[in-house]
TrEMBL record:
Source species, domain of life: Bacteria
Matching InterPro entries: QdtA_cupin_dom (IPR008894), RmlC-like_jellyroll (IPR014710), RmlC_Cupin_sf (IPR011051)
All copies of domain Sugar 3,4-ketoisomerase QdtA cupin, residue ranges: 1-128
Protein name: Sugar 3,4-ketoisomerase QdtA cupin domain-containing protein
Pfam families: FdtA
Amino acid sequence: MNIQIIAIPKIEERRGNLSVIEGDTVPFEIKRVYYLYDVPSGAERGGHAHKNLQQFLVALSGCFDVVLNDGKEEQIITLNKPYEGLLIKSGIWRELQNFSSGSVCLVVASEVYIEEDYIRDFEEFKAFKIS
């Protein structure tokens, strides 16, 4: 599957830790940053794939599961460390679920929002993977 867990540089000191996403932390130029928070218990986010966009997801607080599907297999990754992120390349279906109370999901993206880049129907996604 075209995903990767990437360690985010962490500076530890007694006053608290600091992590930085810059330069070559992610293998793309950052064009958009957003975050998900106050996700109600039992709610799911995502439920789509991208034709071109790449994303880097980080659990800044709490934890959540990322359900990934490449058209052949499914994999679940639990994100729960603010110093690790999940790189999701294009052409991967993703669903975010099981958000813990108070969790915050940071998303760093390779592109600005373009609706035409989204595949929001799983059957369309499977057809896209075959073509």
